[in-house]
Design a protein that fits this description.
Cytidine Deaminase, domain 2; alpha+beta; 4 strands; single chain
Length: 145
């Protein structure tokens, strides 16, 4: 359920997206708020400026949360973002422990507005293979002390 407080913070994320465009960057903005609604961090897309395909604001905030917040605090945060996070960002959000995401545009809505947003090729993957060899580092790392 999205509250009036959520909508206010979502508008701030949309404003970050607008400011991103004004700076020549892609139109995506995000912020991370604590349980009390205080903004802890915010960012916008800098893929073009940084020449870095991972410079999505959601991923940058997930990294920040994982680095700066303890798991309990991270679990109480909410990310507000102008568009639904992509698969790369969703994975980072999950791993960071962020508790909730509120987004303005869905991926489907974004693709309707900009069809090129949905034109990502698929990448062939082959495997699994070499199980006995590949398990060595895993067994060593996760072996109980």
């Amino acid at each position: 359920m999205i509250t009036a407080a959520d909508e206010a913070l979502l508008r701030r994320a949309i404003d970050l997206a607008s400011r991103s465009v004004a700076q020549g960057d892609a139109p995506y903005g995000s912020l991370l708020a604590g349980p009390d609604g205080a903004v802890l961090a915010e960012d916008h897309n800098t893929v073009r400026r940084d020449n870095d395909i991972t410079a999505h604001p959601e991923l940058k905030l997930a990294r920040w949360a994982a680095r700066e917040l303890d798991p309990r605090t991270a679990g109480g945060t909410t990310m507000y973002t102008s568009c639904q996070p992509c698969g790369m960002c969703t994975g980072a959000i999950v791993r960071s422990g962020i508790g909730r995401v509120v987004y303005a545009l869905s991926t489907e809505q974004l693709i309707e507005l900009n069809p090129q947003s949905g034109q990502w090729p698929t990448v062939a993957q082959d495997g699994p293979a070499l199980f006995d060899e590949a398990r060595g580092p895993i067994d060593t790392y996760y072996r109980p002390s």
